[in-house]
Amino acid sequence: MGRGSTFSRLLLGFLAIILLCVGILFSLSFFHLRSARIESRMQALKTQAREMAYLATQSSFDIIPRSPGQSSSTEKLMKWKADRVYKEYNAYIIVYDLNGNQRTYYNEKTLQDESMRYLPSQQEYAGYLSQVIQGKEIVVQTQSSTGPLFTVIVPQMQSSLLYNRQTVTGLVLIQTAAQTVHASYRDLVWQVAVAAIAISVAAVLAAFLFSRRFTRPLISMEKAANSMAAGDFTARAPENGTREMRSLSASFNQMAEKLSSQEQSRRDFVANVSHELRSPITSIQGFAQGILDGTIPKEEQPKALSIITDETHRLSKLIASLLSLSRMESDETSLNYSDFDLNERVRRVIIACIGKLEEKELDIETDFQADPCFVHADADQIHQVLVNLMDNAIKFTPEKGSIHLTTREESDTVIFTIHDSGCGILPQDQPHIFDRFYKADKAHTTGKGTGLGLAICKRILEKHGQQIRLVPTQSGAAFEFTLKKGTKTGGKHASSSESQD
Predict the structure, then answer these.
(1) How far apart are CA 125 and CA 102, in angstroms?
(2) What distances in angstroms separate CA 184 from CA 38, 153, 197, one per listed residue?
(3) Are residues 487 and 373 in the same domain?
(4) Of 61, 149, 348, 436, which has the fewest CB atoms closer than 10 Å, so is most exposed?
(5) Enclosing H/E stretch for 174
(6) Does pTM surpass 0.85?
């Protein structure tokens, strides 16, 4: 899938979540506001009913004489009130006494309204009256032939001077069609809908900007990854965006840096292997061809054959070193742990190298602080480390020089040090001495080794969970490595799992 597809899915996911949340919020808000609006309308109708009940009570005390057919001032006020209630709430008012007699405050518009011609039955009135006498206010929804109605009923209270209390003398009924009440909150639908649309648009815009800000570093990282997959290890991801994206980009770039370094090491390795193999093969091929075509005289042929033999040995040693390093790095070699005397191994290595030492008239000095000095390791692997270090020291120590070997114990660790009196290692070469095929002499001079010895030593000790390092000295070069201290009675262990000890 492409970047656009990924971005689209992410954006659509955001939009779906946002629209779902807005829909839920819209529904909750609408129902809440509708309930509040209905409650407010019912409270307003109750207030109007209470005021009408008060006026009805006052009209019963109206003693101002009036002409036949002439209404009192209170009744005029009640009619005005009924007209106002009809205009504002599309409702009509009926005042009942306790006997069920009614005074209806209709106006002409009310009489023409089909929805206003429903009156409660005697049974309904009796039910209302039984509650109103107790001083209760009633809000009910009833059904008429024209549709549902909302009815508000409040008691008409009159103070009794004799008993110093209020008594119920009747009730006031205000009735309005349900659709009238419903119409009062229909505008809420538009208000809430407009608000929901505005919120949705703002949320979609914010989601789009956030998604772009979130995905832009990912897209850049994808481009860098594709470039690396194509072989360009110089590609890097920009470290911008959120804190998490910056951290991810930094980790990606760190990985890219390591891959670039490994790729460079691989190329150097291939180039070095090619060079190291080419030199002996060229010599073998040249001398062999010279012998075959007679270019080399017969009296010189034994010398040529000797060179061919030496180059063959060199080639064999190089291949053996490559195989050994390959097995070490692929974890194919298991470690057979045992407790053995490190000093004894050092002596064996010295004896094996005695010919080379005498050839260059080198002095060997040993300083074994503890003798015997037992270590817990793979004896054969450590023997190879000692041989490689000794060969290195002999190779770079001038004639009549010296090599100093020491072993010492520190707590549960044994430290071995080899120090030669050679020319030492230049500061610019020191960080690379454990790299494969690295040589201080850049021309890879023939006879100076393959550049694999120290790399093999480092890998062997790493498999033991130990380390080897270059020790700073005033002259020559010194290397030291550590091993786990062993016991004199320790036996051999077949498993390599103890490398985790």
Answers:
(1) 11
(2) 8, 20, 22
(3) yes
(4) 61
(5) strand 165-177
(6) no
